[in-house]
Amino acid sequence: ATARLADNDRPISVGREQLGDGRWNFSGEIADVVVTNAVLSGKPAGQPLKPETFDGKTTWRELPASKMGRTVSVAAWIKIAGADPVANYIVSKGEWNQAYSLGLSSGCLRWAINGTFVQTGKPLEKGRWLYVVGTYHEGALRIFVNGSDVTPGDASGATHTGDVQVVERRFEKNVMTPAGAACAARVVNSGES
To answer: Which of 81, 91, 165, 174 is the most exposed place for a label (fewest CB within 10 A)?
Structure first.
């Protein structure tokens, strides 16, 4: 997937969406959040240190972050306690369709840049520590789980198992409805171009 990075001067929200009062919070534990302008490899660095518990309702924190230019990577250790049927945010730098965010959509890992995102087609395992990474570099988004690149295709043109979706959403009114986004979605499976 290709995307364009637009960043802002706000701090990062860890454990909730950064829209308004935050509608979707993370339920479980998050440890060792990294936000950098380097391209991360997706390989886990040791074991989770200093985990923080997030109740899925009210707990979250801010993390200072520099504005990113053409590259951004976000990584964290997560242990999922529960998955909301809509979303759970690990890290959010703005509304899901502005700036960038790494989170869950119905339990599936999702990495979003300005409304373009890649996401796993299957929910992540609950109750187990997982190392998750989203990278954005030269217009391309990639996602990793426990060191494995789960992005459809790679630089050599090889494709993965097809358990990842590339989704682009374009908002008509840039609003969310209780039933979901008021938008048209285009889903491209890993075997399609």
So the answer is: 174
Residue 98 banded pLDDT, cuts 50, 70, 90: confident
Query: With 0-12 CB in 10 A as exposed, 13-18 as middle and 19+ as buried, what is 9?
Result: exposed
User: In 3-state terms, what secondary structure has residue 43?
Assistant: coil
Hey, what amino acid is at 1? Answer: A
**Pairwise CA distance, residues 102 & 112, whole Å:** 6
pLDDT at 71 > cutoff 60: yes
Q: How would you class 10 by CB atoms within 10 Å of its CB: exposed for 0-12, middle for 13-18, buried for 19 or more?
A: middle
The band of 48, judged by pLDDT with boundaries at 50, 70 and 90, is very high
Question: What is the SS3 assignment for 184?
Answer: strand
pTM (global) more than 0.85: no
Place of tokens 């998050």: 30
